[in-house]
Amino acid sequence: MSDVSRILTAAQNGDKAAASQLLPLVYDELRKLAANRLARESAPLSLNATGLVHEAYLRLVGTSSTEQQWDGRSHFFAAAAEAMRRILVDAARRRQSQKHGGGITLQALPDEDLPLRQPPEEILSISDALERLSEVNAQAAELVKLRYFAGFTLREISEILSIPPRSTDNLWSYARAWLSVEIKQTLSH
């Protein structure tokens, strides 16, 4: 059992100190995933990889009054990918709203972290299509979340989802094709 799995188990069993032990073990990996994800974005945003990791971590273990149940390392990182997806979708929605400037282009100050480069419309259309995909094929939707929003490689996703690498490749091809058709249909209406 890995250290992460051991600490997650301890947290489930009521060990209050487990959450503080978890962050140092997963921080570098979460930060790498967040930086990879943010590198593919286009619109400037005040969110950087560090901020994305901290926000996702807080959503996972920090402020919730209900206890999270983790089935190990894979489940935790899948949940982290979902948390990052939701944070990016929320940020895209805020950027689009008139209250927060609507379509105004912001000039970002240089930062050590990469700015977002994807337009909010694209993030929102992908998120909406992903919700529909989850109704058709939940495993394919989970794969897309891990790949697109957390930046895991297909090999890593194969391990996380406990499916053979060849099946992961096939599922990724299916999900990309399904989402492509769905997004094109949405944008044409």
Write up this protein.
With about 190 residues, the protein is mainly α. It has one domain (about 5-189). About 70% of the residues lie in helices and about 0% in strands. The chain is built from 8 helices and no strands. The chain has helices at about 5-10, 20-40, 50-60, 75-95, 120-135, 140-150, 155-160, 165-189. Helix 5 (about 120-135) packs antiparallel against helix 6 (about 140-150), helix 5 crosses helix 8 (about 165-189) and helix 7 (about 155-160) packs across helix 8 (about 165-189). The radius of gyration is 17 Å and the shape is globular. The termini are far apart. Residues about 105-115 have low confidence and may be disordered.
Output the structural class: mainly alpha
User: Strand tally, please?
Assistant: 0
Number of helices: 8
Helix content: 55-70%
Q: Give the distance, in angstroms, between the N- and C-terminal Cα atoms.
A: 50 Å
How would you describe the oligomerization state of the chains in this entry? single chain
Dominant shape: globular
Instruction: Specify Rg, calculated over alpha carbons.
Output: 17 Å
Beta fraction of the residues?
under 5%
Number of domains: 1
Residue ranges: pLDDT <50 for 5 or more in a row?
Answer: 106-116
The largest sheet, given as strand count, sense and whether it forms a barrel, is: none
What is the average per-residue confidence, as pLDDT, rounded to a whole number?
75
Order of helices and strands: HHHHHHHH
